[in-house]
Amino acid sequence: MIDIRAVISIIIYILFTPMISSLISGIDRKVTARMQGRKGPKIMQPWYDLLKLFSKEAAVVNRIQKILIIAHFVFALGSGVILFGGGDLLLMLFSLTMAEVFLILASYSVNAAYSEIGAQRELLQMMSYEPMMLLCAVGFYLTTGSFYVSDIIRTSFAPIVTMPGFFIGFWFILIIKFRKSPFDLSTSHHAHQELIKGLTGDLSGRLYGFYELAELYEKVMMLAMVGLFFLYDNPVSIIYAVIAVGAVMFSMSLIDNIFPRVKWELLLKYSYIVTLFAGGANLLILSLFL
Amino acid sequence: MRVSKSPWLLHYDGSSCNGCDIEVLASTAPRFDVERFGIINTGNPKHADILLCTGGVNSQNKDVIRQIYDQMPDPKVVLACGICACDGGIFKDCYNILGGTDKVIPVDVYVPGCAVRPEALIDGVVKALEILDEKERAFKKEGKRSLTSSEYKALLEEKAGESETKEDTDASES
């Protein structure tokens, strides 16, 4: 039996995410520009960037690179489909990890110095955010009794009530996921020129477009995860979720502009400390008292 | 047109005195803020649409410029920024300077000035965007690509050869 609502939300997700996500990124860039006292680009600038990338020539380094980047895109899209289709949260996280693995393989495959360093750093970033991501899924299970997103949004109270620690941890790893300033080691959205864009250094034209598109889908997916902390069996909760997503996005811009980039040792240290003390403590309390 | 809505810029400093480079940086700073045109200063030739060269070309960096230019995907434009990049400027007669950027790669827009003012620079970029539009149209319709640096080199040599033979005939006539 196919759930009609799930199908509709999947279709909406696939069709409208690039636009919506571009808009969110555009607002992010505008806010960043205003914080720096600049006028900033047009609000839909990321969308124009995307269109441009798809109209440019792609200098493909080797055939395997192309396949891997497309696989990265398909898996990133697929994990969003699982999330918005009300599927298994664990499956979605594993699928997302798979997408990252394809991206890293694509970077290694070109055999270029900067891509390789970028890929190594991306592995480190994965090492630092992956535990917290999985802990979040476990937290949702302990709170709601299910890994399925369709069940999680039908609980009688917002999951944030019992899992504030998980939320702090998730918020922290979002900085890494969004490639924001203190932790944008492998590549960044801005014109920081360290490593010549690192991980994505050897992607060009359409291939880079696919990478950017996957990033846009991933962004909406991560924000939906933020929303998941606030959604419960009451339509009003959608408003809470939207406010939370807005606040999280703003805090990301703010942090991006305040902190300089850190070394990878600090990235690992901070993310593990946060995972242990926010996620771990919350997990302990949940498993003892629920 | 798509490319001119988000032109990403790659800045290469040849043998410049850094005057122009500082003006290039100034145009990305809050006062002039070229990001409002969607311009991003990338460090990566594979992501760039506009190559912005400052300073003259010397024997050491000519191959670097060629390589950067060849790595940029089509459609692309080259901006020679400052009088040194246009024709060598006050360093023109130095033993190590070959001349302007157009000695090694085809240049689309020349922006003179010593140092070039950010206003002139932005004006030059806007000019470059028009050319970028034209190139994009040609690239999409006819698959017309920009000259590679080796093709350009051959073209320059051919021209030099022609003018030499012309000079020879002139000399023999007189």
Characterise the protein shown here.
The complex is a heterodimer of chains A (290) and B (174). Chain A is an all-alpha fold and 290 residues long. Chain A contains ten helices and no strands. Chain A has helices at residues 4-35, 45-55, 63-84, 89-109, 113-144, 149-152, 164-177, 205-228, 237-258, 264-289. Chain A is globular and about 55 Å long. Chain A has one domain (4-289). The longest helix of chain A has 32 residues, at 4-35. Chain B is of the alpha/beta class. The longest helix of chain B is centred in the last third of the chain and has 25 residues, at 118-142. A five-stranded parallel beta sheet of chain B has the order 2-1-3-5-7. Chain B has a single domain (3-173), classed as Rossmann fold (3-Layer(aba) Sandwich).
Summarize the structure.
The complex is a heterodimer of chains A (290) and B (174). With 290 residues, chain A is mainly α. Chain A has one domain (4-289).
Estimated structural class of chain B: alpha/beta
- Strand tally of chain A: 0
Oligomer: heterodimer
Number of domains of chain A: 1
Biggest sheet descriptor of chain B:
5 strands, parallel
What characteristic shape of chain A results from the CA principal axes? globular
Number of distinct helices of chain A: 10
Strand content of chain A: under 5%
